[in-house]
Amino acid sequence: MDASETIPIERRLLERLTDHLARRGGAPDLQQALNAALEMWLGEQLKLRIDNDPASVRGYQWKTVFLPEGTLLCTRTYGESQYARVHGEEIIFQGRAVTPNRLAHWAGRGRRNAWNDIYVRRPQDKFYIRAQRLRAQLAQELERVTSALPVPAPVASNSAEVMSAVVTALQASEQTKLAFAALFPSPAPDVQRDCSQGEGWNLPERRKYRYRIEDVAFS
């Protein structure tokens, strides 16, 4: 038989628990209900730690990628896989703390690109993923989140600044109109000629001064 401890519980919480068990039917077993509640609470706390609770999570910061505690790192060379684990704030490989680049070099017995050669599996991941791909995914997610944020409009500190900004905008608009008019002047309006026959137009002494256009053009 497991040892038990006496723990004081607030009366209102105990009454709520009893009412809930009564509504579900059957004989209320307070001990089992309390044990189940504690198990559920502990499970939620464990998930909170894995999901990067800033109060409790530790891990290794690799450039822009954060590897929480418990992350596995794998690299394969010459048909053999080498594993390392994030413990606390360090990457442990064969009992000693290493960096990702040193892990790739030691496991591959030569100079290698850690981003391309190391596969990462964080506690919340189901499969290993190449470090280079994980970094790209995190960068895309960060860009998507930042682009969705609204851009705050500049706010003037007082009414004088507001009026000054309005006057400046109007002056700039007027100067733009003047410059545009100087570059592209509007065409002059057409002058309507008076072609009406004046007084005495048909007099015989004036007919000798009249010419037809075709006579002048082809003369």
Architecture overview:
The protein has 7 helices and 8 strands; from the N terminus they run ααββββββααββααα. The model has no long low-confidence stretch (mean pLDDT 75). 44% of the residues lie in helices and 16% in strands. Among the domains are: 11-50, no CATH class; 59-146.
**Spatial gap, N to C terminus:** 137 Å
Strand arrangement in the largest pleated sheet: 6-5-4-3-7-8
Taking all Cα atoms into account, the compactness measure Rg is 44 Å
Silhouette: elongated
Largest sheet: 6 strands, antiparallel
The average pLDDT value, as a whole number, equals: 75
Helix content: 40-55%
Give the H and E element order.
Answer: HHEEEEEEHHEEHHH
Q: Classify the beta-strand content into a percent band.
A: 15-25%
Question: What topology does this entry show?
Answer:
Elements: H1 11-24, H2 30-50, E1 59-62, E2 65-68, E3 72-77, E4 80-87, E5 90-93, E6 96-98, H3 100-108, H4 114-117, E7 119-121, E8 129-130, H5 131-148, H6 159-183, H7 213-217
Antiparallel strand pairs: 1-2, 3-4, 3-7, 4-5, 5-6, 7-8
Concise overview:
The chain has helices at residues 11-24, 30-50, 100-108, 114-117, 131-148, 159-183, 213-217, and strands at residues 59-62, 65-68, 72-77, 80-87, 90-93, 96-98, 119-121, 129-130. It is α+β, with helices and mostly antiparallel strands. The mean pLDDT is 75.
What labels would you give this structure?
219 residues, alpha+beta, six-stranded antiparallel sheet, two-stranded antiparallel sheet, 7 helices, 8 strands
